[in-house]
């Protein structure tokens, strides 16, 4: 029951009931990326959307799918045989606001405060 209520009201965790219904009625799956995100478009090819795997975050979309979803190109160049160099890193979501965010003065996995709190 709790999962059903989450599908109705909580849009930031997964797809809602309305999105699931719209996708099943009008959506045609186009593909899936390495992270498990699924990409859809309607039958008239006028709308495109993504169903995220896990938490919804727009920075999870890789470059080739980003250009497709924003109508920069109509064909997805979905070729896994493209040669990757050793210096190329896999796509990562934006870590801002998480524990994995970069901080220049971070030592021992802890950020020192520049102030002292009041003591009683």
Q: Per the principal axes of the C-alpha atoms, what is the gross shape?
A: flat
Approximate helicity band: 10-25%
Distance N terminus to C terminus?
47 Å
H/E element string?
A: HHEEEH
Nearest-angstrom radius of gyration?
Answer: 20 Å
Poorly predicted ranges (pLDDT <50, ≥5 residues)? none
Overall pLDDT confidence: 77
**What class would the helix/strand composition place it in?**
alpha+beta
Could you characterize what this model shows?
This protein has one domain. The model has no long low-confidence stretch (mean pLDDT 77). It has helices at residues 2-9, 17-26, 63-69, and strands at residues 27-32, 38-42, 48-51. The protein is flat, with a radius of gyration of 20 Å. 21% of the residues lie in helices and 12% in strands. It is α+β, with helices and mostly antiparallel strands and 120 residues long. The chain has a 3-stranded antiparallel beta sheet. It starts with a helix and ends in a 51-residue tail after the last helix. The longest helix has 10 residues, at 17-26.
